[in-house]
Amino acid sequence: MHIRKEDQVEVITGDDKGSSSSRRFAKVLRVLPEKNKIVVEGVNRVYKHLKPSAKSQQGGRLSKEMPIDVSNVMLFNPATGKGDRVGFKFVGEGEKRKKVRIFKSNQEVVDA
């Protein structure tokens, strides 16, 4: 998967597109590869209404982030200051060969 936990991403489609939140880029909290979805901090928030009960004395509204499709976000490129597409390439020789993520615009390695 091109996006991993703790990555900075920009939402490119949907209700939370661009700067609808207080900041333009947000952090990925969870990755759900089997569903091809991710949970992004402050994006796609929903409210669950809780009824007061014997276990929890207080009712109210619980706010939480729901998953969005991974195709709706782009990885943040600090060199350009914008969202960027991600590709893969192999670096190194022989046994030390390693697969790394790169930005498509400037061919820089994402994870060092």
Can you give a write-up of this model?
The chain is mainly beta. The protein has a single domain, classed as Roll (SH3 type barrels). It contains no helices and ten strands. The chain has a six-stranded antiparallel β-sheet with strand order 6-3-2-1-7-8, with no helix packed on it. A two-stranded antiparallel sheet has the order 4-5. The protein is elongated and about 65 Å long. The model has no long low-confidence stretch (mean pLDDT 88).
Question: Topology, please?
Answer:
Layout: E1 8-11, E2 26-32, E3 37-40, E4 45-50, E5 60-65, E6 68-69, E7 73-77, E8 82-84, E9 86-91, E10 98-103
Antiparallel strand pairs: 1-2, 1-7, 2-3, 3-6, 4-5, 7-8, 9-10
Question: Can you give keywords for this protein?
Answer:
single chain, 112 residues, mainly beta, SH3 type barrels, 6-stranded antiparallel β-sheet, two-stranded antiparallel sheet, 10 strands, 44% strand, elongated
Outline of the structure:
The protein is built from no helices and ten strands.
The largest beta-sheet arranges its strands as 6-3-2-1-7-8
Under CATH, the topology is which? SH3 type barrels
Question: What overall geometry do the principal axes of the alpha carbons give?
Answer: elongated
Any idea what the radius of gyration is?
A: 18 Å
How confident is the prediction overall: mean pLDDT?
A: 88
Unreliable segments (pLDDT under 50, ≥5 consecutive)? none
What is the overall number of helices? Answer: 0
Number of domains: 1
Q: Report the strand count.
A: 10
Beta-strand content? 35-45%
Q: Span from first to last CA?
A: 17 Å
In terms of structural class, how would the helical and strand content be classed? Answer: mainly beta
Top-tier CATH class = Mainly Beta
Q: Judging by the overall fold, what is the CATH architecture?
A: Roll
Order of helices and strands: EEEEEEEEEE
For the biggest sheet, the summary is: 6 strands, antiparallel
The level of helicity is under 10%
